[in-house]
Amino acid sequence: MLQMLTELMSGLALFLFGMKFMSESLQKAAGDKMRGILNRVTKNKITAVLFGALFTAFIQSSGATTVMEVSFVNAGLMTLGQSVGITFGANIGTTITSQLVSLKLTAIAPYIIFIGACLMMFGKKPIYRKISEIIFGFGALFLGINFMTAALSSIPEFPTIMHYFAYLSNPVVALLVGLIFTVIVQSSSVTVSVLVLLADSGLVGLGSCLYFILGANIGSCTPAVMAGMNASKDAKRTALVHLLFNVLGMVVISIILIFAMEPVTNMIASINGVDNAKRFVANADTIFKTFQTIIFLPISNQIIALTKILVKDGEGDAVQQDDKHLEYIGKAKNFLPSTAVVEIIQEIERMAVLAGENLKDSMSALMDDKEEAMEAVRKREQVIDYLSSEITDYLVEVNRYELPLSDSGRIGALFHVVIDLERIGDHAMNIVENAEKKRQQKLVFTEDGKKEIVQMYEKVFSLYEKSLTMFVTSEKDNIEEIIALENEVDQMDIELQKQQVKRLSKGECSVETGLIFTDMVIGLERIADHATNIAYSIFHDNPEEA
């Protein structure tokens, strides 16, 4: 028995390793490109279902797809309604693993591993290494299946073990075992794949397999539910849609099985023959998920309405007593390499919005002597400094992981963006200090001087907004306009300082006012430089293009 258990555990470990290794390598090789498509095809529910199925089949993980979805909804990149089709499609796409396992590929597993290992050793380019890891993981998966199949074939020799397998003839027990095992391994693909081998060895009856699958479907919701626990209310609802899809599907299909077990079993068995238990389980898994999508997609709006009843407005958007908090990243968030950079960009955008508000309020304080605006800038600056420190620490942590190829190249640029935003916040504080000095000393700008500062500020702020849009969207359409604005600001810096010298020489303003004016012009020019740097950060892959 010890030898059988050792072989079984070794096979399962190798299977899990191959599954995880292949899935993660697929995400790293093409996760960023697939993520971009995922974010664009969700307007039509049918298209979203199809793409959700293809995307999940490609990365071999419905958990990764739904966690990515929850992250997008939490970041505001996708609405709850748009996410539904992807959720339904992901449930269909995850069945590809059990379909592959049911095929007789174990004999060529060693050759697949050998090819993957050779490519891994001799492949120089990062993309070739990722492809080799995918091949190696695929081969390891089937080699694990080979070990498990050999071990399971000897189980009938042990009456004690067979006694426990007999309990699976009870539908409730089969459903619970499927659920619990999936929660543990965090993947319904793994559970159903193991079930394929159990059914092929005759250890689990075909009827019990159907309930086992239903339990596994519910257990597969664990990653999405965990990702939504510390997220916004709509992100929670997205995770809940995934849970309701499988819970309601279990209820509907269980009722059908209670009254029509034999016709359903015969229908599924007729596809590949009664004696082919492996194909029976794989086909049942695909048929159940497809059936659930067909019956629930037309009432998806009602399912969304139900999630809004279960997760009321106000829940999930926890009120922060202190503004010093992270909304999209942090230790409490569910980390997924394929969405890490998206979430970091959202957090940096939040920091950038605060820096922009500080620019507005600091100018208001300078021009109109508004003391409340000064206080608002000071409070906001503390949050900006906090975000700068926390985002930088998180970038350092994320940089230790293997990310999708294009994302890993962007991490360095994000460090610089955080620094630029922190500097812009510091310049806003300098403006507040000048405003305080101006108010205390009762200094007054000349009409021309005031007009010139406002004109320069408006150009700088316009440049800042365009740069921020370019950074968040990675669209390069604004680059020519940004360069033109930056050149105009540089020219204004020179011209306005000359004008101020003329006013001083004519005695039209005091020396103290002139110093504040000059400091303002220099500060605004530097803010424009930092804003331009933010725009250029999207050219991380091709600095020469920038």
Mean pLDDT: 84
Coarse morphology: elongated
Given as residue ranges, the uncertain stretches (5+ residues, pLDDT < 50) are: 316-321
Order of helices and strands: HHHHHHHHHHHHHHHHHHHHH
> What portion of residues is helical?
over 70%
Helix/strand class: mainly alpha
Q: Which sheet architecture does the biggest sheet show?
A: none
Radius of gyration, taken over Cα atoms and rounded to an integer in Å: 30 Å
Helical run tally? 21
The oligomeric state of the chains shown is single chain
Tell me the span between the first and last alpha carbons: 66 Å
Q: Strand content of the residues, in percent?
A: under 5%
What does this structure look like?
This protein is 79% helix and 0% strand. Residues 316-321 have low confidence and may be disordered. The longest helix is centred in the middle third of the chain and has 40 residues, at 233-272. The radius of gyration is 30 Å and the shape is elongated. It starts with a helix and ends in a 10-residue tail after the last helix. By secondary structure, it is mainly α.
Please outline what is shown here:
The protein has helices at residues 2-38, 45-59, 62-74, 80-93, 96-101, 109-122, 126-152, 159-166, 171-185, 188-200, 206-219, 222-228, 233-272, 277-296, 300-310, 337-368, 371-398, 405-440, 447-473, 479-506, 511-536. It is mainly alpha-helical and 546 residues long.
